[in-house]
Fold this sequence. Notes:
Elements: E1 6-8, H1 11-21, E2 28-33, H2 39-51, E3 54-59, H3 79-88, E4 93-95, H4 99-102, H5 122-125, H6 129-144, E5 148-152, H7 156-168, E6 174-178, H8 198-203, H9 206-219, H10 224-237, E7 241-249, E8 264-272, E9 275-282
Parallel strand pairs: 1-4, 2-3, 2-5, 3-4, 5-6
Antiparallel strand pairs: 7-8, 8-9
Catalytic activity: (R)-pantoate + beta-alanine + ATP = (R)-pantothenate + AMP + diphosphate + H(+)
Pathway: Cofactor biosynthesis; (R)-pantothenate biosynthesis; (R)-pantothenate from (R)-pantoate and beta-alanine: step 1/1
EC number: 6.3.2.1
Amino acid sequence: xxxPPVVARTFPALRRALAELxxxxxxxxxxPTMGALHDGxxxxxxxxxxxxxxxxxSVFVNPTQFAPHEDFGSYPRTFKTDAAKLxxxxxxxxxxxxxxxxxxxxxxxxxxxxxPALAGLEDRFRxxxxxxxxxxxxxxxxxxxxxxxxxxxxxxxxxxxxxxxAADLDMGVKVIGAPTxxxxxxxxxxxxxxxLSAEERxxxxxxxxxxxxxxxxxxxxxxIESSLAxxxxxxxxxxxxxxxxxxxxxxxxxxxKSIKNGPIRLLVAAxxxxxxxxxxIAV
Length: 283
């Protein structure tokens, strides 16, 4: 039977645990999370185990990426359950700092990002978001010094932002994107899916179906503009309030007008009741 993960909650404890992990020059993978772990998170852990000798999972609900009107206070916190799941995956170390450790009194620095962080997608609706994400991920990279870091592709713009940041700031971390894990009906797994009512949960997979329909139309030679319009209509008819449905260059997130102009990523964000869902697929 495998040993349960070491849980570090202070920087001295983290440093001691990392020094032990790195004995014999072991490589380390980091999986950053905000907890409330589901099978999508566990798939990231399994990929991390294939890419490094030792696996560290951070569990920290980061306040700086939430706006005042968002769900920081109600975001699900299930550490005991999360720790049991990570033990079942033979994770080596859980980094679970509190807010005071991450943002002590007098904390006054942050990482500002441009490029994919200003693509007019999530940043248009959550302008605070990527500054908070970049700062906390930068701190996690500095604290854990991983060789690789694993992020899910469901938050595709975030993946591009973190990848760019790690390269631009010479952080020495290889950022790896993992495929989106879905429920049987296609809904992308998310910690926020618990907010959906039974009726909303039945409707939610329409978002993925609309993305697939748009991709199908584009591949069949329909214009991107008309394909997106058809997808937006499907989403609205299902009862969503659409924030955006966009076709972007998969590498740069720049707007794209033709399938000939590069690999396309379709990205969507929409509200169903009080729950905001995001998703994306390649064309």
